[in-house]
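Input.
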Amino acid sequence: MTTLSDAAPEVLQRYYRILSAGIEAYDPAGELGTLLADDLEFEGPLAGKRRGAQGFCQGVKGFIANVTAIDVIQEVHGPDGSATLYDAGMPGGTVRFAEFFSISDGRITALRIHYDAADYTRKGGR
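Output.
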């Protein structure tokens, strides 16, 4: 698995470690929640637009349960946000993701994720 570079903010280093650690290690009420603003703005192809860290922590369980590897292809970091492009290994093959983050005071305040939802579900995502 390719990880983020040292240029990535610590909050994202921790975020991606959680995503790739496996469902056995995941606690929806645990560390991930400390990385997210309580009023997190989330937007994604399956979930639509939502607000709230708690809902995101529950929803991401399906991804964590099925991802076998995350291979970071490219990343860009600025003072208030970051973007990552990565391939996620899923039971049925690889799915490409792009994530755009807003970060403030060491927490993720917004996350916009882009991927082919039909490809994701076909390859075992939920």
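The chain has a mean pLDDT of 94.
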